[in-house]
């Protein structure tokens, strides 16, 4: 797979153990998307920010480490989010981080490519991706890549997991390299991006069939988002 050059991908991991299979999955996804070694992948460990996140809820102000983590997510070209499964959903720590991020900047993830992933002990929880994570990030107006990755305990070392990682990472890399800079637009249902953050009447831009960004186009010639993604993947 060919990674997109100079794309800033950040991993947000809600793993609690050391070592963490949740972090490992995030690192593998990021390495596949960027071509970097896992040790070079920037990872935000929410376990280390748990106290700061709790204090942010009561004070309304983030501690320096939490503020730096939120800045990293806001400034990234694409984000990989990984959570362990608790009670058939994402963890409370995972949700709390994105709650304080949204409270600080409601547009933090608007139009940003996000790859959703989760780990669990059994394959029966794989639907957490569609029932919990995808709706959460759709609500935050992120561009959620089509392929999510769930890794149960028995999936590690399986070729099927490797294939899902490569497919999802390729989709993220294509979107992160083709969409506008982070925080500068929101994606509409027809595949266009509002350059003014989604306000009515704003200028629109779109990703063309060749992967370029066009800021002047005829709305009658908009390429459906699914076709844009297919073209980007084939070009990569």
UniProtKB/TrEMBL annotation:
Gene3D superfamilies: 3.40.50.360. It comes from the Bacteria. Pfam families: FMN_red (PF03358). InterPro entries: CE1759_FMN_reduct, Flavoprotein-like_sf, FMN_Rdtase-like_dom, NAD(P)H-dep_FMN_reductase. Keywords: Flavoprotein, FMN, Oxidoreductase. Residues 8-156 form the NADPH-dependent FMN reductase-like domain. This is NAD(P)H-dependent oxidoreductase. It comes from Streptomyces cathayae.
């Amino acid at each position: 797979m060919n990674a997109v050059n100079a794309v800033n991908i950040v991993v947000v991991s809600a793993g609690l153990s050391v070592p963490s299979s949740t972090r490992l999955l995030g690192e593998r996804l990021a390495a596949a998307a960027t071509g970097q070694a896992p040790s070079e992948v920037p990872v935000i460990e929410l376990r280390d920010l748990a106290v700061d996140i709790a204090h942010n809820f009561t004070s309304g102000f983030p501690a320096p480490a939490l503020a730096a983590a939120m800045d990293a997510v806001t400034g990234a070209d694409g984000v990989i989010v990984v959570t362990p499964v608790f009670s058939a959903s994402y963890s409370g720590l995972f949700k709390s981080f994105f709650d304080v991020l949204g409270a600080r900047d409601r547009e933090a993830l608007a139009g940003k490519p996000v790859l959703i992933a989760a780990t669990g002990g059994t394959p029966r929880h794989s639907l957490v991706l569609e029932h919990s994570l995808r709706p959460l990030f759709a609500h935050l107006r992120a561009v959620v890549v089509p392929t999510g990755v769930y890794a149960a305990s028995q999936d590690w070392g399986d070729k099927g997991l490797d294939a899902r990682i490569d497919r999802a990472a390729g989709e993220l890399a294509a979107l992160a390299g083709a969409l506008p800079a982070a925080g500068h637009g929101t994606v509409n249902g027809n595949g266009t991006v509002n350059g003014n953050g989604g306000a009515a009447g704003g200028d629109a831009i779109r990703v063309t069939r060749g992967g370029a960004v066009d800021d002047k186009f005829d709305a009658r010639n908009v390429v459906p988002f699914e076709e844009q993604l297919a073209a980007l993947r084939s070009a990569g």
